[in-house]
Design goal:
Distance between the termini: 43 Å
Strand content: 15-25%
Organism: Novosphingobium arvoryzae
GO molecular function: monooxygenase activity; nucleotide binding
Keywords: FAD, Flavoprotein, Nucleotide-binding
Strand order of the largest sheet: 5-4-14-15-16-13-17
Radius of gyration: 23 Å
CATH topology of the largest domain: FAD/NAD(P)-binding domain
Largest sheet: 7 strands, mixed
Pfam families: Trp_halogenase
Structural class: alpha+beta
CATH class of the largest domain: Alpha Beta
CATH superfamily of the largest domain: FAD/NAD(P)-binding domain
Protein name: Tryptophan halogenase
CATH architecture of the largest domain: 3-Layer(bba) Sandwich
Number of helices: 15
Length: 499
């Protein structure tokens, strides 16, 4: 039953992935009594670099009732078991950040502590070979995890690679079918209420006015409402995350798509490789202090799997966040709220997280400060914990061959990062804080993969009375056998969701 204070109209400013994800989720959640309008201009392009995701995207699609195979077909998608990092800790070395766990804990002491002890004796398998995701990924295999928790093939998770433009189109169809009204046009002016300071309406360049109770800013880096109108302010994190530019280009695919993303460290940043059904997405994220735009484009074009399908597309950004994600009656979702470089495929997740918090803390027209404060507390905490995980990749490097890597190895980092590095360095302990998005297996992958090998183990370990080295060997074999029984990634797509 609707009361007199209920939100009667929501205006989403901007389309793209952020706008249409927001529109689709609101249309699914709001059944009556509230008008949802989205304003976008076809003349204004979208960034479109976020084509790789992490597992929570599956929950978002499932909540909307979207069938996985239909979605993968519509977006030329493929499946993702994790990210391979090449040349990050040191040159000529690679490791894998898996979705899922390393085996399954069988003792009071975590499994990785037994691996550390075996590694210190020179008797450990590669850590990568103790996770189901890599066992499948390195063989080019894919099938969904088994439901039987007793089987090693239940110990992994997965996400997707997809064409972000096609995903936005797919969600636009979904949202419009549920009553969302799209308006084509550019915003020329934003009017604030003289008493409350809230956004009252926006005026398009052709003179049309669109009013609303709640405004969602999905206008990208420009932040037309959150910054342009409300002057919310921005925190710059480039002293910790120095890359400030990217250049992106699709190329023809070469062979079957791999079921994982690849990130390759370069002289002044890193290159992504995202395999889709019809092409491969590529980009070079770099620091302009150490590399020119022309040299970045040349490096990217020289390191493609196939022929480039377009001219390189440049992108400039400042890593950081707005001081507030929700200010007055405006919620910033996507790039309007902040930018986290796409190293761990969090761009689309942060859109999803912003939407989830908005639905969980949906306001009425009073816009109780208690509600907005709670939204901002959660959003800021999540953004900063993801920031810490990405900083870890840059800080933990043994590379000294270029200026960027020397800077990163020597830079000061937030205390929250140092705290985790030191706990792991001394005892191999994976301490958590404030509900990190990335759990212990993710931090373990980067610590070990980039050379932060513990000096000792958990003091409880020698008191357990067994080293369980035989279990590690049996686990490695069981994972290999389970992976071999899976279909190839290409065969799975052809059978279930070919575009």
């Amino acid at each position: 039953m609707q009361d007199g204070n209920s939100i009667r109209s929501v205006v989403i400013v901007g389309g793209g992935t952020a706008g249409w994800m927001t529109a689709a989720a609101l249309a699914n959640a709001i059944r009556t009594g509230c008008r949802i309008t989205l304003i976008e201009s076809e003349e204004i392009g979208t960034v479109g670099v976020g084509e790789a995701t992490i597992p929570p995207i599956r929950t978002f699609n499932e909540t909307l009732g979207i069938a996985e195979n239909d979605f993968v077909k519509a977006t030329q998608g493929s499946f993702k078991l994790g990210i391979q990092f090449v040349d990050w800790g040191r040159q000529d070395h690679a490791y894998f950040h898996p979705f899922g766990t390393y085996g399954r804990n069988f003792d009071l002491v975590p499994l990785h502590q037994y691996w550390i002890a075996a590694q210190q004796r020179g008797a450990a398998p590669d850590l990568d070979d103790l996770c189901m995701a890599w066992a499948a990924a390195k063989r080019g295999k894919f099938a969904p995890p088994l439901a039987d928790q007793r089987h090693v093939a239940s110990t992994f998770d997965y996400a997707y690679h997809f064409d972000a433009g096609l995903y936005a189109r797919f969600l636009r169809n979904y949202a419009e079918a549920r009553g969302v009204v799209r308006i084509e046009g550019k915003i020329g002016d934003v009017a604030l209420d003289g008493e409350t300071g809230h956004v009252a309406h926006v005026t398009l360049e052709d003179g049309r006015q669109v009013d609303g109770d709640l405004f969602v800013d999905c206008s990208g880096f420009r932040g037309l409402l959150i910054e342009g109108a409300l002057h919310t302010g921005y925190q710059d994190w480039t002293h910790w995350l120095p890359c400030d530019r990217a250049v992106a280009v699709p190329c023809a695919k070469a062979g079957d798509p791999t079921p994982y993303t690849r990130s390759t460290a370069r002289a002044a940043g890193w290159q992504w490789r995202i395999p889709l059904q019809h092409r491969t997405g590529n980009g070079y994220v770099y620091c302009s202090q150490f590399l020119s735009d022309d040299a970045a484009a040349e490096t990217l074009l020289a390191n493609l799997d196939g022929a480039a399908l377009a001219d390189p597309k440049p992108l400039r950004f400042v890593t950081g966040r707005r001081n507030l994600f929700w200010n007055r009656n405006v919620v910033a979702i996507g790039l309007s709220g902040g930018f986290m470089e796409p190293l761990e495929s969090t761009s689309i997740h942060l859109i999803q997280a912003g939407i989830s918090k908005l639905l969980a803390l949906f306001p009425d027209r009073n816009f109780d400060p208690m509600v907005t404060e709670e939204y901002n507390r959660i959003a800021i905490n999540e953004f900063e914990r993801i920031r810490d995980f990405i900083i870890l990749h840059y800080k933990l490097t043994e590379r000294t061959d270029t200026e960027l890597w020397r800077y990163c190895a020597a830079m000061s980092v937030p205390d929250t990062v140092t705290w985790k590095i030191e706990h792991f360095r001394h005892y191999g302990r994976l301490v958590q804080r404030d509900a990190d998005l990335f759990g212990p297996p993710s931090w373990l992958a980067v610590h070990i993969g980039q050379g932060n090998l513990p000096q000792g183990t958990d003091p409880l370990l020698p008191l357990r009375g067994a080293d369980h080295a035989d279990y590690l060997r049996k686990l490695e074999g069981a994972l290999a056998r389970a992976a071999e029984s899976m279909p190839s990634h290409a065969d799975y797509i052809a059978r279930h969701c070919a575009a």
